[in-house]
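Weekly structure sync - notes
Attendees: PM, LS, DV (DV joined late)
Agenda: review two folding runs queued last week.

Item 1: First target. Sequence and C-alpha cells pasted below for the record.
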Amino acid sequence: MKPRPVLSFDLDGGQVTSRQLDVLVAVKEAGSINAAADRLGVKPPVVFRHIKAAESSAGVRLVQGTKRGSTLTSEGMDLIAEYHALRSRLQSEAVLTVACSPVTEELVMSSIPSVDPSMGLVVSHDLHNLRLLEQGLADLVVLDDPLLLMEDQELPATEIGQMDMVHVDKGPRYVRHRYGAQRIGFRHLELNKVDHTVEDELLSVKDLLASGRSFFVEEILLLRLGIRVRSSTDPHLLRHSVMAVHRSQDARVISLIKTLRERMQK
C-alpha cells in the first residue's frame, strides 16, 4: 500500500478540503455548476454544498454567476492556483514549477515541452505568482509587470522580451484588468495628470470590452481573440518588459529562460 498525500488549506474560518478544491477546479474548467457536477459524477446540489462550505471556511465568495454560467472570483482563482502549485510539488521533488499569467500562458506552454515536459504550470496573477516563488512553491515566474520588481530588488530577473498594451479611453471611469502590466497604464494616467477613477477589477477580456468603461489591456490578449482595437495612447508609450524571475539555478530553469527569450524575439 502506497500512502497518497491529500491537500487541504487551513483558513481563518476553517478548512478547505481537497474535495472542495477539486470542485472549484471543476467549476473553473467546466464553466458552470451543472457542467462541473456532470464532470464529477454528482448532482448539482452536491457541488453547490461543497462551494458554500469552502466559502464559509475562506470567508469570501469563491464562485460567482455569469451570463454564461459560473466562474471563480479572483479569490477563488488564487486559491486553486496555490492548490495546483502544492499538488505539483507533492508529485515529485524533481518536478520544477513555472508560474505565469494568462498573458504569457501560451508562450510558456509552448516552451516547456522543449525543455522538460514534466514541469508543472500554475496560471495566476503576478502578485500571487511572486508569493509562490517566495514560498518555494514555484521555481520560475514569468512576470508581466516589471514595476513589481522595484519592490524587491533581491529577486534575480532576466528580461525575455517586450509587450505592448492597448488603452481604450471611454472617459474617466475605468475598470482594471486582473492580468498584465496594469500599473504601467495607470501610472501613465497619473504622470499625465489625467483625472480618472477605477471602479472595478475584471478577469475576462470580453468583460472589459462589454463594460462600457475605459481600460488597459495587453495587446496579445486581444489578438488571440481576433480583435483589433485602436489604442487611445501610443502603444510605444505603454511598452513594457516581460521578466523571468527565479531563485533556482537549476539548468532546466536557465534553459527555459533562454527558450522563452528566443520565442519572444521571433
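Item 2: Second target, run right after the first with the same settings.
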Amino acid sequence: MSIGTAGFGSLIIILIMAAVTLITRWGGVFVMSFVPISVRVQQFINAMSGSVLVALLAPLALEGDNGARLALATTAFTMLLLKRPLPAIAAGIVAAAIFRQF
C-alpha cells in the first residue's frame, strides 16, 4: 500500500500516526490498570525511565558531533550543579548553538 504525499496524502499520514500514538498511550494506561502496583513494579517503572534516557543519549554521545557532545556535557554539569532540568536543558541548547555558530 502506498499513500502519496500530494493532496490529502500528508494529512492522512499525520492522522494515522496520531491515531497510532493515541492507541499506544491509552493502551498502556489501560493495560497498567490491571497490574497491581507493588514495590517491585514501581522499581521497574523507575528504572525503565532511566534506561530509556540512556538508550537515547548514548548513540548521540558516541556518534554525534562535538556540538552534541558539548551540549550533553553542559546539560549534565548544569543538572548536577542546579538539580533542575529546565535550566540544564536550556544551557545545553545554548552551548550547542554557540558552538555551532563558530
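Discussion on item 2: The mean pLDDT is 89.
Action: LS to circulate a short write-up before next sync.
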